[in-house]
Write a structure and sequence with these properties.
Blueprint (H helix, E strand, L loop, with lengths): L1 E3 L9 E3 L3 E4 L6 E4 L17 H4 L12 E2 L4 E2 L20 H6 L8 H11 L4 H6 L9 E2 L6 E2 L6 E9 L2 E6 L1
Antiparallel strand pairs: 1-2, 3-4, 5-6, 7-8, 9-10
Length: 172
């Protein structure tokens, strides 16, 4: 159980009890949370579009998380529409480490690739059926921060940069 305090990482005050699972899906045995950061509920289906199951969203290599209720993004600060990154996700900005503590971090690109192969994932039905319970939580659209594809697509960051304007991730 973690009490999050609104500020430079958590978008709102919230206490969350995270489920965990130990799995070698990524190629080595790791402990994973079975819901997104900020999600008070584990998704009830692959297409669960409930905010309580979606949790919070991040821009690549930014530590500020965002809550989106379907209408309003919190915090409703100026959205960064152009990201220019020279580095992978920096440990000082990793919301998993900051919010959950030492030993927790965003998965690497290789961990996501291995999980995808080892899980035999072809779609969100299969990612949800896995021990990780990954569902179609959607994402915040890069051009303005509006919610997009909640209930139909999943977008999960890795810690690796793919270009100056984007990062690698698991997308389904």
């Amino acid at each position: 159980t973690v009490t999050h305090t609104a500020g430079s990482v958590a978008p709102v005050d919230k206490t969350v009890t995270y489920g965990t699972v130990s799995t070698n899906l990524s190629g080595a045995t790791k402990c994973w949370i079975t819901q997104n950061l900020g999600a008070t509920d584990q998704a009830s289906s692959a297409t669960d579009n409930d905010e309580a199951s979606a949790g919070w969203y991040w821009q690549f290599n930014r530590k500020q998380g965002y809550k989106h209720d379907g209408t309003t993004r919190t915090p409703n600060t100026t959205w960064i529409t152009s990201i220019n990154e020279s580095y992978d996700w920096q440990a000082a900005n990793d919301p998993c480490t900051i919010l959950l503590g030492t030993g927790w971090r965003i998965p690497t690109k290789t961990e996501w690739e291995n999980a995808d192969v080892n899980g035999g994932w072809d779609d969100y039905t299969e990612t949800y059926a896995s021990v990780l319970k990954l569902h179609a939580a959607g994402y915040l659209y890069y051009d303005g921060g509006s919610i997009s594809s909640r209930g139909s697509n999943g977008s999960y960051w890795s810690s690796a940069r793919s270009s100056s304007s984007d990062g690698w991730g698991l997308f389904f």
